[in-house]
Model the fold of this input.
Amino acid sequence: MTDAADAKPADHTPAEARPFEADVARLLHMMVHSVYSDRDVFLRELISNAADACEKLRFEAIQTPALLGDDPKPRITISADAEGGHLVVEDNGVGMSADEMVEALGTIARSGTKAFVERVEAAQGKESAQLIGQFGVGFYSAFMVADRVDVVSRRAGSDAATLWSSDGQGTFSVSAVDLADAPARGTRVTLHLNEESKSYAERWTLERIVKAQSGHVPVPISLVEKPGDEPAEIADGAALWTRPKSEISKEEYADFYRSAAGQFDEPAMTIHYRAEGRHEYTALAFVPSTQPFDMFDPERKGRLKLYVKRVFITDDAELLPRYLRFVRGLVDSADLPLNVSREMIQQSPILAAIRKGLTNRVIGDLEKLAENDPATFETVWEAFGQVLKEGVYEDYEKQAQLLALARFRSTASGEGWRSLKSYVADMKENQTAIYYLAGGNPDQLKASPHLEGFRARGVEVLLLSDPVDSFWTTTVQGFEGKPFKSVSQGAADLALIKAEDAEDKPAPETSEAVADFIAFAKATLGDQASDVRASDRLTESAVCLVAPDHGPDRQLEKIMASAGRAGAGSKPVLEINPTHALVTALAKVGAEEAGFREDAVALLFDEAKILDGERPADPKAFSGRLARVLERALR
Done:
């Protein structure tokens, strides 16, 4: 094997220096200038890339067998040179052209990686180091251990080879190399180890890392202990998913998960089964215990790999609905054809059947987890509940199952979680709906005046702080016959539910003076409010805003407004607490002080906006009214 460090550019093609994409430069800066908690992951990342290259060649060779030449067996070879301080990872996979190398090694392709960079930059000190050390971020993790990285690659079937080289300081160079200095096909990555990383050229270190983190990749891995030695196989490339479950340990599953998913946590749930009958396929899937960094990629793509008879096809086959995109792993089909394009595979009825079966299995296993291991399920829900609730909105067929799985914070749960089943079981006498309050801030929700009347009656209210909550609540018919009702929309309808500390006496009626003041407030506000009325939901605050009976609730209105889609003429209802001391005092102010009363009404409306997380529409007018009211109070 020729070391890429010794590869010479062709005389007629000088090395071309290029800057890294901005996001890559940021990442490399962190790699070079931080202290890492677990640098071992760089080898896992390079082996994973090499295995993917071998699997992609197997796929391309189905239509073009000549690409395999006289070397049909895929392999990964790790070569150590402790004396020279070099480590080489070489594969005989599909390889890369010069343009592909620039694209693959000079830019960050996935938004999840970019999100990772932003999260690490936001972290400080030890946390930052742990994040980088755990997740590695693909090829770039090589710079955790190397002063320079050289990559020589030759695409299968090509008569040209390219050298990519960089010290990780902001630029890289690309040049042609003589074929004699390149692999017959595939890629050779040479790491010039830094002083702190010389141990990665030692056999026992390499063997330990490969067996711990990459022992189950579907490509054999060999180790050359020192220059001139023969390769010795240290991993046989047997696909883990083809083995019986009874023969696979929990540790082996976890190792495979970390290698296949690029995660460093323990899987919260492992799903491994073989489907037989009309369609045959094997699925090995994992539910992580922490969020992947691409969880909220705008494209919402899943990361399950598709194999056909152990031939890698694609890693974006949409094998699960998008609300299960956090699941990692693979499906290996025995029925799908190999001689069709990826686009045609996506449209295959066989794939549709696999998708349905796998979706049923994942949701079914989540149901079992929720029943048999509530603590672990709550860990899953904390990480992925926001994504699973997208399914309530998007998948009508699975809506009832997903609602049963859902967990919520509520006014009765403290810091714990509540299921809808437990909510319905604890409903108050005469309570006819499942009440909820949607908003963007959990602390603000807990302090909302909308909850006062419900809290006084011991009525539990779900506190929904995820943006998706405002959408799924508009599509569901209910749960176990109980409809969902927003406490910030329409009338509260609390008259039939007795307050917990109330005696057997009727609720106080609105006095004639207060009724007149409410009528005055309605006339004063005009078209700023769709209605002004006495409230039975307020017990402590003077006022609050609610949405009209029909249309979106307050939170959905805000989301639509922020997206420029607020409905024309959508005005809130101002509810006034008829027993509040401020309201009863204002009701006694005579008609001769009409100006003061108008200022007071406007201030009450602005107060309700502030309580609802909004700003007064006209800050200058608000300030002027407040000054006039204070002046009167000080006379």
